[in-house]
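Just wondering, does anyone understand these tokens?
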Amino acid sequence: MKLETFFEKFDQFADAPGAVAKMRELVLGLAVQGKLVPQNPNEGEGAELVSTASAIREKLAGEKKLRKLRVIQPIADFDRLDIPKNWTLTTLQEITEIRPRNSAVDSTLASFLPMPAIPQSYGGKLKGDIRPWSELKKGFTHLADGDIVMAKITPCFQNGKSAVINGFKNGIGAGTTELHVARPFAPVINPYYVWIYLRSPQFLLEGIPHMTGSAGQKRVPIGYFACKPFPLPPLAEQKRIVVKVDELMALCDRLEAQQQERDTRHAALARAALARFSDAPTPANLQLLFHKSYDIDPADLRKSILALAVQGKVVPQDPKDEPAATLLKDLKNHRVNLLEKGYPNPSESKVQLKKQAKQRRPPNLKKLPKGWAWATLMESSILVVDCHNKTAPYSNDGIPLIRTTNIRDGQLNYKDPKFVTEAVYKRWASRVYPESGDILITREAPMGEACIIPEGARLCMGQRMMLIRLDPGFIHGKFILLTIQAPCMMNRVQDKPVGATVKHLRVGGIETMLIPIPPLAEQHRIVAKVGELMTLVDQLESQLAASRATAKNLLEALVAELTAAGAPSPKVRA
């Protein structure tokens, strides 16, 4: 396959993660493998340039214009690299001056290049400032026009910070000490070809294991920079490679700009589609949001659905439904009757009655849909109970102990299971035994995760969580669960989270959390509609993921084909 064909297929894999970045890596990789432009046997041999460089080095050394070369041992096997016949493997230390020095009058104006001034992108411009040479000659890395520089410290090295020095004041300057520098022996090497080599994915990837130092301060040693096998083509081919890389990188820039323009346009369309869905949260309007290029996070869509649900916007209100105010009044009478009879036990019933008597709702709450009413979580429940605030002793088997890590995204899981004995279970559940249909909510680590205990489960409630018991004849458990999961939940917590480092909900924050209660019939309709919409989000997310995976696989297959065979191409169309 020709490289031009690869670029022409861009629309087929444009949705693959980092598609343009992969194209840039491909271009740079092919360039230093001799697979980007065709070889010309009339252009000589790369080995001839090494001989020329050696002669230049000897001449400069004899004239005392060159510091004595510190021989650095090669770090890799030269025989393992496959290059064209008229190329040769050498090292930068053989064909350039490593760590060069400048000589200038102190008053000479020169350029200074800090690390932030070195671009990460291919073709980025250097941005230095001007200083007298007297301020730069000591304590910095010497630089001059034509030098090739490479950042040696993490993460700058991995990000490809490197450059060819050009346009310095009076042709000289200095820069950060976190640079490796090579000064080419003209006319042996094109500095921009070296730059391409330093940015190639293989050079960057293989350099990471060679880095030394502590975390956050690791550096690429001079040996890797100076002595890694360097594929050297004839000078004329070097120049053709640089021209071709520039051409293809410019094409990548245009493709990236087209993507950004498309993304901007699609973002506006996505906002419009999201507003339309907010006004009418139907499956049809939800499906509009899953255009493959809108790039709306499905997690954000799920939050939007939950937010709309607790605002009464996912299903219409029915004036025939019994109002929530009547529902809550009947629930209160039912709850008082149960608690006064000693439910769930005499001690706990007294605690619950006392807390219920203290329940208050602030004035001027946000207006709810017709038929809805505000209530605290305790007013919506039969009881709300805190956990036993000690770490339960584990046993090898027995009753599962549910910790905060076992509650995520509205579901109960049994990852990394822990168990307690029957005796521990009875002591830890002395206030109330957890039952199927109860809601568990975490107070920290993290706060606000919740789930419903599934049918048939027998479990022990661990630390930092609370249990909510509802009566399904008045309140739908899944409706309360989605109000807890809704993104506006924290706005309804009256006793706000506390904690210097790890935020956690107070017990009172959960007990007095404000809940918008619809009529019971509407609760059931909301739960059904949210389930329908969430299922559709799951399906659309899977379809989108499959589409992107297909694009990714196509991109990887095309890259593998080109990398294996090479594809010199004289012309490429945008």
Remarks:
- The two ends are 17 Å apart (CA to CA).
- The chain has three domains: 1-20+251-317+521-574, 45-233, 324-518.
